[in-house]
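Practice problem: predict the structure.
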Amino acid sequence: MTTVLRMPLTLRTWREGLHALLNFPVALAGFLVAVVGLAVSGALLFLVVGLPLLTLMLLLIRLYARFERARARVFLRLEVAEPEPLRLRPGQRGPLAWMGAVLRSNVSWRSTAYALLHVWWAMFTFTTVTVLWAFGLFGLTFPLWGWTITRYSDEPGIGVNVDGEGGGWIWDSPWEYALVAVVGALIMVAAAPLIRGLAAVDRLLVSTLLGRSEAADRMLQLEADRSVVVDASAADLRRIERDLHDGAQARLVALAMELGMAKETIAHDPETAARLVNEAHGEVKQALQELRDLARGIHPAILTDRGLGPALSAVASRCTVPVAVDVDLPLRPAEAIEGIAYYTASELLQNVSKHSGARRASVDVWRAGDRLMLQVTDDGQGGADPTAGTGLAGLADRLGAVDGLLAVHSPAGGPTTVTAELPWRGRAAAGAPAR
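Answer:
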C-alpha cells in the first residue's frame, strides 16, 4: 500500500507520463509522413519518380524510428539495440543499389508499420494521461487557488451543475476544498499504475517493431561465431606450425646433418660413422613420436575409427592422475561435434594435470535429449576462473561457436566440475556405438 501511495511522487511516473503526453504529437508526425509518402509514391509508381519518392519516405521513417528509440531510452529507460544497417548486394554500388537496399530492408517496413499503428495507441495514451492529470492536479491544487474566486470575483465559489433556479452545488467551504483535494490525490494515485501499464505497452511496441529482429540477431551471432571459429582455426594452424618448426623439423635438420657427417666419415672412420648413424636413428624415432603426438592433437585416428569412448580413454591414460572414463552414447554424434567434445576433454584433462593438484579425476559423457553432455571432475584445489583470460575462456568461445555452453563450478579448495554442453547432431547414417 505504501508503494502505491508513493508511486505518483516518483520520477519514473512523471517520466513515463510525459512520454505518454508526447506520444500523440510525435506519432502524428510519423503517421503523416508515412501516409502521405505511401499515397503519393503509390500514385506515381508508374512514373520514374515513384520509387525514389517511396525510398525518400522510408528514409524519413527510419530517422523517425531512430528518434523514437532515443525517446524510449530517455523517458522509458528502454535500451533498444540498433537494427541492422543497410546492406548492399555484393558487387553493387551507386544510387540504384542504395535505393534497392532501402526498399528491401526489413527495418524500413517495420518502422513504417510502427508509424501507421502507433498513432492510434498514442491518441489513447495522450487522452488518458491528459484527463487523469488534469482532474487530479486540478483537485489536488484546488485549496491553493480556489479561495481567490470568492475573494476577487462576484462568484460565491465554484459551481457544479448550477442553474438559474439555485440548484447545484457551490464549493465554497474549507471542508469542500479539502474533499476536492482528497479526490484529486486519489485520481493521481490511481493514475500512476495506469501510466506504468501504458508505458509497458509502449516498450513492447518499440522493442518489437523498432528493435533488432530475431533474424538479424541470429545473423550477427553467426557472424560472431564465424569469427571465433576463424580465429580458433588460425591459432591452431600457428600452433601446428610452431610445433613442426620447433619439434619435428628441428630434429629432421639435425638428422640430415648427422647423416651427412656419417657419409663423410664412413670411409676412413667407420666407428664414428656408425655412432652418428645410431644417433640419427634415435632422432628419427623422436621425430616420428612428435609427429604422432601432433597428429593426435589435430584429430586422432582412434577417434575416427572407434569413437569418443576409446579416444577419451587414450587421453586419460596420458593424464598424470588416475582418470575414470564413462561414455554412455548409444550412437555417435556428428564428426564436428565429436571432435569438439574430444578437444574439450583433452584440454580439461591437461588442466587437471598441470594446475589442479588433484589425486583423481573423472570424465563422463552422455546424451540428454538433443544435447551432448561432457563433464570433467577433479578433487584438486579448485579456483578455476573462466573470466580470468585462461584457456577456459577459449574453450567457452569454441563451444559457443556451435551453440554450446561451458559451465565451471570451482570453489576454492575444490572440487572442480566443468560441464560442457553441445548440440546433438547425429550422423547422416546410423553410426557405430561410441564404446
